[in-house]
Design brief:
104 residues, mainly alpha, flat
């Protein structure tokens, strides 16, 4: 499982998000957060083992748009786009999202 394609990674992300956002899991998170995380950790143990940082982002964050952005950019690079241009695009997007606009 350690060399999944971005398509396969997206499929796992969707499965994790769907389980995480189910009403059962949302209720469980409120009343027994440890059990909530245990279920996610055991259900997706192999994915967590091979993609631990990504798994932690998916499980702990509500907004995973930047994760999708990185996968989109990886696809572009894999399909022949210029890596330096992609890096600039990512840097600009992240700067726009996280740095305050200069005062005029």
């Amino acid at each position: 499982m350690s060399n999944l394609t971005t398509v396969q990674i997206r499929e796992f992300i969707n499965e994790i998000v769907n389980l995480k956002n189910s009403s059962f899991m949302q209720d469980l998170k409120l009343y027994d957060e440890q059990k909530y995380f245990n279920i996610l950790n055991t259900t997706f143990a192999n994915f967590k083992l091979n993609y631990e940082s990504m798994f932690d982002i998916i499980v702990k964050e509500d907004n995973i748009d930047n994760l999708y952005l990185m996968l989109d950019m990886k696809d572009k690079i894999d399909n022949g786009s210029n890596k330096k241009e992609i890096e600039k695009e990512i840097a600009k997007k992240l700067a726009d999202d996280f740095l305050p606009a200069p005062k005029k």
